[in-house]
Amino acid sequence: MIREKNINDNTPKLMKVRELVEKLNLKVYSGESGLDNEITGGYTSDLLSDVMGFAKDGQIWVTLQTHKNIMAVATLKDLAAVVLVKGFVPDNDAAEVSNKEGLPILGTDEQAFEITGKIFTLLK
């Protein structure tokens, strides 16, 4: 369920990962047990060090990276989910960690710019 925000409040609406999947027709590659994670915002970057330094707990991460290290960063930062862009699919070892940690890896055929804009619009 999306929670409406006060018009003067700059914090994003809270949304569960499963709601985002439904609204944006995202593929769920792994980590289905985390679909009820709450999204508090978003972060888009392909640099793991950038995400480690600046992403916040509960954010959804948009990236084209598919390797196991994305899950190390996502779990370290306690992110809600990872969205892979441009039709990329997660490596098998990344999917294994995703399932173990309950942190969904999602996917879209869209470019990072496009899906980030849609996520931003839904959360504002």
β-strand number: 7
Strand line-up in the sheet with most strands? 2-7-6-5-4
The helix count comes to: 5
Please provide the ordered H/E string of secondary-structure elements: EHEEEHEHEHEH
Task: Note the gap between the termini.
Answer: 15 Å
CATH architecture: 3-Layer(aba) Sandwich
Walk me through the structure.
- The chain is α/β, with parallel strands linked by helices and 124 residues long.
- It has one domain: HprK N-terminal domain-like (Udp-n-acetylmuramoylalanyl-d-glutamate--2,6- Diaminopimelate Ligase, Chain: A, domain 1, 3-Layer(aba) Sandwich), CATH 3.40.1390.
- 36% of the residues lie in helices and 19% in strands.
- The chain contains five helices and seven strands, in the order E-H-E-E-E-H-E-H-E-H-E-H.
- The strands form two sheets. It has a five-stranded mixed β-sheet, with helices on both faces.
- Helix 4 links the parallel strand 6 and strand 7.
- 35% of the residues are buried.
- The N terminus is likely disordered.
